[in-house]
Amino acid sequence: MLVGQLAVMMFSTVDTLMMGRVGPQDLAGLAVGSAAYVTIFVGLMGIVLAVGPIAGRQFGADDLPGSGRSFMQAQWLALLLCVPGSLALWFPDPFIWLAQLDAAQAEKVRAYTRPEAFALPAALLFAAFRGFSTAVSRPKAVMVLQLAGLAAKVPLNAVLVFGWGAIPALGVGGCGWATAIAMTAQALAAQVLLRRDGFYQPFRIPPLWQTRPQRAELAGLVRLGLPMGGSILVEVTGFTFMAFFVARLGATPVAGHQIAVNLIAMMFMIALALATAAGTLVAQQLGAGDKRAARTVGRHAVVLTALVAASVGAVVAFARESIVGLYTSDAATAAAALPLLVWVWFFHLGDALQTVAAYVLRAYQVATLPMVIYVVALWGLGIGGGYLLAFGPHGAGAVGFWQAATAGLLTAALLLGLLLRRVFDENRESAL
Hints:
By secondary structure, the protein is mostly helical. 85% of the residues lie in helices and 0% in strands. It contains 16 helices and no strands. α11 runs antiparallel to α14. It is globular and about 55 Å long. The mean pLDDT is 87.
């Protein structure tokens, strides 16, 4: 799962590295455009990923056809959700207004988000495949397809961004088209794998066009998926909205912010892999009726994630100057990025801990209260506090947003940890 998640993250890293060579204006356009895409995609993906806890429990209870049916309905849900999502990407004006961009910068954002409107259906369908395959302990299949997608993305990016022969240089728009092509190929390959891989035969998964949406099963996915998607949306927008507000400070601050965001996101993939593994195993143990094993896995996941996050954060914090040098040779952009990475250690620790706690809670199908916690901690303390620090009397700029975001993540980690402990205690009592 970690290798697959890093492959996904490398899509953004490749974009950031290439835009860093094109110039601050294109890098700033990427920062706002990718923040818009991530906001829409991840919020919708969170709803689709409700298939994970549901199919995981069915798999643990040895109901393989039931897991297959849940996956089919998750694919229908993905197709339904991509309609409003693609429209929002084709018309990204609310995000442009939020960032207060001029006309030239707004065109760069549109050049990125409009190709992503074509990528979104494939991305959501693949998210359903990923959630299902992970839930039934088949993450290697997902990893292979994600690595193949990255292998296609890199040369496509280079050709479309910088141009080659008769192909013109598209700049930031080339990043969007490369992602759309790679994601579509990845989603099609997943459908072929479902037909050809014997592992999936016991789940009785027919081709999508031979099925119909089922209201009852869609409703079950939506009941769990809406608070899950809401939580993920709040979590992600607590991060992506920083880009919109930092963009008001100018192209150089937001370019530095984009470097810090990409670095943090790569580190987050380690925590996300551990959290996904923990949520999957806890759901399977709950489906099998072994509540003691579920609690043990959940507790160990929290401890392991804390140790790994603290170690990775320390390495990156102390080596930040060398790392930023890999992203850009522009002195002004590097100077804007370095102060942000001072906060990377505590930011990443809070981010990792809240993620693993949230995923284990979703395995217990506890999703509504975590969403409330996210709203208070990440929107209230993180975005609200960051806005005051950045644009208030002291004018801390981008650093103010990172300070407040760090406080918000640590608060969310603490509150979700206390909630998880209560859930463990309640399930211990019910098992006696």
